[in-house]
Amino acid sequence: MSGPEPWWTDAVVYQVYPRSFADGNGDGVGDLAGLRQHLDHIADLGVDVIWLSPVYRSPQADNGYDISDYEDIDPLFGTIDEFDALLVEVHRRGMKLVMDLVVNHSSDQHPWFRAAKLSRACPKHDWYIWRDPVDGHEPNEWRAAFGGPAWSWDPGTGQYYLHMFTPQQPDLNWDNPDLRAAVYAMMNGWLDRGVDGFRMDVINHIAKDPASLSDGSAGYVMQPRIHDHLQEMHERVFAGRDALLTVGEMPGVTVADAALFTDPERRELDMVFQFEHVGLDHGPDTKFDNRPFDLPALKTSLARWQTGLAESGWNSLYLANHDQPRPVSRFGAAAVAAAAGFDADPFTLRYESATLLATVLHLHRGTPYVYQGDEIGMVNAGFERIEDYRDIESLNWFRGAVGRGTSIPDALDALAFRSRDNARTPIPWDDSAPAGGFSAVTPWIGMGQGWPSITVAADRAAGDRSVFDHHRRLIDLRHASRTVRLGEFELLEPDHPSLWAFTRTLVDESEPPLVVVANLSSSVVMLPAAIGSRLETLVLGNLGRPEVADELRPWEARVHEFGPA
User: Fold this and answer.
1) DSSP-based three-state secondary structure for 199
2) C-alpha distances in Å from residue 55, one per residue of 63, 65, 441
3) Which of 74, 249, 268, 493 is catalytic?
4) Interatomic CA distance for residues 550 and 559, integer angstroms
5) Quick check: 201 and 249 in contact, CB under 8 A?
6) Which domains can be identified in the chain, with CATH numbers?
7) What does the DSSP 8-state code read for residue 448?
8) How do residues 401-414 score in pLDDT, each as one tens digit?
9) What confidence score (pLDDT) does residue 546 get?
10) Which end of the chain has fewer CB atoms within 10 angstroms, the N or the C?
């Protein structure tokens, strides 16, 4: 990276999914008041940025990712005054606040769409994507991400409108300059209010070619005009403002694409969320067709991105967010046992798994993201009935799968591993009834199988087995070490079935190189001589000082200074 190092090269981001974080008004749903009450928990972790999932006005068809008013707070979460108070408290603690921005689509209850449906002659009609029927049917074969056709019929205008997610989320037409101007004005309004940037939902979908007859993503992912739109957005919104963070969620992005989007000379985005590594365990037809955990594939995938963005661009580092299963359940000891054909308790080696995965993630080059609850090692929800689920994607898939002949037990097994609701169970602050300090009433979704044994209070009191404290040490290390922030990455032993090892090295040698070694198995692993013989000072480990320097205990992760060969 040439030139001065951007501030976010040593930053760590913490994602808050507000409806599941803390309920401050006693209605069973998390809100801004609850978040304010627990800001010190986030600040104590040492993170630099809070990413806040949508709190705008919304009918909640997709838990707030369907926005009906971009400029106000939904009463479910509080008021605009409460938001302003939250922003003050975040800044007072030395952190920044990044808003989730959803401008690929709006809610069908947004005044823009309501006006668009009144008449084809209405100027806002062209703010959305409409097409006439083709032979009495949809204009092409595009499918929505949550199931069914991506087009819905509007009898009032006699046209179909496009929605790449639910019918309640009509896609905005970014070819319309007035629509773009309205979006930019809204974004500038939030930045003027003091917000420190945006995480942009499926932002690489905004440029589309609906004339495409493909039933895949060729017509709506990475269309050429996406770069024009993002460069214009940068010029109209971000240029001249200091210390912001812009990150684009981009399903289907390649390393080459990301290098363009994040090249600072192109003035588009600071970093992107890519999906390659979290798609490795998806089946060929649907993500609910689960494949066994494959460590060589995972570490090789992440290494490709490390290498591909080494000279220009920047990585976002994550294993979890509001759309992904819990890392402990997906990549930890229980998952490895399941991949080998063994049954395992979901809490097997939970501390070891959580801290190992955090160590490996935070020691890559890029900006790490911590999803709420992962700092205490939360596990998947463990729901056993379809009535327990709330996620629209999960419910739609379940109905379709059962309708196609999948047995109910098999469909529930798939949801138990993959559903987005695994990441959306409430934060268990303590073991008190009825909802672990999250709320004084029954919460909007069940507490999950981890509660009451896994809680914030219990973990923070766990001494040298606190997942929270291990995250704090990792964040402190990133803040202190240029090697962690900027060192070159080299993957070692790429084909080893249980050893994850890599080095981080500064070109200028101003700090010693580091090596990360992690054992993702239930057996002791002997380090290859080329690694074990070069281990020097222990910088950080999840199991304390090693018993034998060149052996890794089950689910042990260590960071050492790395001596010369």
Assistant:
1) strand
2) 9, 9, 21
3) 249
4) 13
5) yes
6) 111-162 (3.90.400.10), 481-562 (2.60.40.1180)
7) -
8) 999 999 999 999 99
9) 93
10) C
Burial 474-510 (b: 16+ CB within 10 A, else e): bbebbeebbbbbbbebebbbeebebbbbbbbbbeeee
Count the helix, strand and coil residues of the chain and give each as a percent rounded to the nearest 5.
35, 15, 50
Residue 500 has pLDDT above 90, yes or no: yes
> Is residue 35 predicted with pLDDT exceeding 70?
yes
Of 108, 196, 201, 281, which is the active-site residue? 201
Residue 2, pLDDT > 70, answer: no
> Which residue is it, tokens 């998390």?
30
Q: How many CB atoms lie within 10 A of CB 17?
A: 24
Dist. CA 21–CA 34, nearest whole Å = 7
Is residue 421 flagged as an active site residue? Answer: no
Category of 202 on φ-ψ map: left (φ > 0), alpha (ψ -120 to 50) or beta: left
Structure tokens of 284? 């060929």
The answer to whether 38 touches 429, Cβ cutoff 8 Å, is: yes
Whether 72 is a known active-site residue: answer no
pTM above 0.85, yes or no: yes
pLDDT, tens digit (0-9, with 9 covering 90-100), for 417-439: 999 999 999 999 999 999 999 99
For 112-128, write each residue's pLDDT tens digit.
Answer: 999 999 999 999 999 99
